[in-house]
Amino acid sequence: MFRTPVISDIRLAAQSLREGRLVAFPTETVYGLGAHAENEFAVARVFEAKERPHFDPLIVHIPSLGYLDYLVTEVSPVALRLAEAFWPGPLTILFPKREAVPDLVTSGLPSVGIRIPDHPVALALLNEAGVAIAAPSANRFGCLSPTTAEHVVEQLDGRIDWILDGGPCRVGVESTVVRPLGDTVELLRPGGVSVEQLEAVLGQRVVIAERVTPPNQPGLSPGTLDSHYAPKAQLLLDAMRLPPRNAEQGVGWLALRDRPAAAQPGDPVELLSATGQLAEAAAGFFAALRRLDAAGVRWIVAELFPEEGLGRALNDRLRRGSAPRHL
Ligand code: TXA
Ligand code: MG
Fold first, then answer.
1. Is 298 exposed, middle or buried (0-12, 13-18, 19+ CB in 10 A)?
2. Would you kindly state where each structural domain of the chain is located, as residue ranges?
3. H/E element holding 115?
4. Nearest protein Cα to ligand 1, atom 21
5. Which of 130, 216, 235, 245 has a CA positioned 20 to 30 A from the CA of residue 21?
6. 141: buried, middle or exposed (CB in 10 Å: 19+, 13-18, 0-12)?
7. How far is it, in rounded angstroms, from Cα 166 to Cα 192?
8. Domain 6-208 falls in which CATH fold?
């Protein structure tokens, strides 16, 4: 069986991307599964490798603002302001797309989500490749996002051409996705840039988008599917919902700082930050859920975070991870 090599050679990775191959690479948020954004065959392989439905569009990564003109028809003042404030960084902005962006990338939507990642390896790769790179998170659809090269191996080994190793991701949750709306923006997915940070730059309240069900409504963000980011164990947000316990069906616990009162001796417990820092919690979030899965528990009980800053993005992932699975 083909095993995907894990490499650190940025030149080789860039050359492969240009030639239409699939390369997983690190960003500051999570690892992405990259493909030459204008190569439809390569983009189609991304959907196949992830088992991702075609209604879920991909984010396009660029190395500098100069690439925008080539990909989009218009950059509104609000979009420019946010790009200047947060790029490189974990903010994806929707723009009306040019024809150069294949419909496959945007799932037929008229707008394309674009960001400049804030990671030295990602930026070097993009500069060396000299092309825009479409990249969803490098996981199988609906599963936990990868924050190390090893996580990518676990889900995509043998399905993609290279994995570029750049160590663990600093932010740990995906980018915030926004759509410009007049002189503010609509929040389609909470992520690494907080609502508070956006509002400070805009001087306006951000509009929070409705959650989308069913997923394929034109103009809305399909990544807001209810069930997403799910561990293998059943995730619960309330210990009261645990069924009566028995020896075969273990329970794991995820919390910010304090050991949950209902945890029993011997239960695996993941505490994300001894000092209660949300940034530290985000950086370790997906890896902690993976460790609980690896411990073989049937249930994971997670405590919601304070609904502020990165806590909003983490709670979003917990709520989706605990939603009934419909895919
Ligand atoms: O941090 C991140 O955003 C990572 C790294 C690799 O950049 N990427 C990522 O991609 O999380 P993905 O595919 O797992 O999530 C992208 C989500 C889509 O599910 C969708 O909600 C939204 O971004 N999105 C992308 N393009 C869109 C578009 N044209 N219209 C509406 N939503 C879009
Ligand atoms: Mg994803």
1. middle
2. 6-208, 234-321
3. strand 111-115
4. 223
5. 216
6. middle
7. 19
8. DHBP synthase (3.90.870)
Question: Hey, which residues does 32 pair with through a beta bridge?
Answer: 25, 137
Helix (H) or strand (E) holding 302: strand 299-302
Which atom number of ligand 1 is nearest to the Cα of residue 171? 1
Which of 121, 163, 221 for mutating ligand 1's site (highest number of atoms within 8 Å of CB)? Answer: 221
Do 6-208 and 234-321 show the same overall fold?
no
Percent of residues, the chain, with pLDDT higher than 90: 88
Q: Which residue, chain included where needed, has tokens 């030295």? A: 120
- Probe ligand 1: pick from 25, 59, 94, 105, max atoms within 8 Å of CB? 59
What tens digit of pLDDT does each residue of 42-69 get? Answer: 999 999 999 999 999 999 999 999 999 9
Question: 188 and 195 in contact (C-beta within 8 Å)?
Answer: no
Round to whole Å and give the CA distance between 53 and 226: 14
- The token pair that represents 200 in the structure block: 């400070």
Atom of ligand 1 nearest to the CA of 106: 29
Protein residue with its CA nearest to atom 12 in ligand 1: 136
- The answer on pLDDT for 136 being more than 60 is yes
pLDDT in tens, 251-297: 999 999 999 999 999 999 999 999 999 999 999 999 999 999 999 99
Q: What is the pTM of this model?
A: 0.94
Read off the pLDDT of residues 189-238 as tens digits, 9 standing for 90 and up: 999 999 999 999 999 999 998 764 444 444 445 555 566 778 999 999 99
CATH architecture of 234-321: 3-Layer(aba) Sandwich (3.40)
Measured CA to CA, the distance from residue 66 to residue 195 in angstroms comes to: 26
Distance from residue 227's CA to the centre of ligand 2 (Å) = 12
Q: Please report, in angstroms and rounded to a whole number, the separation of the first and last CA atoms in the chain.
A: 28
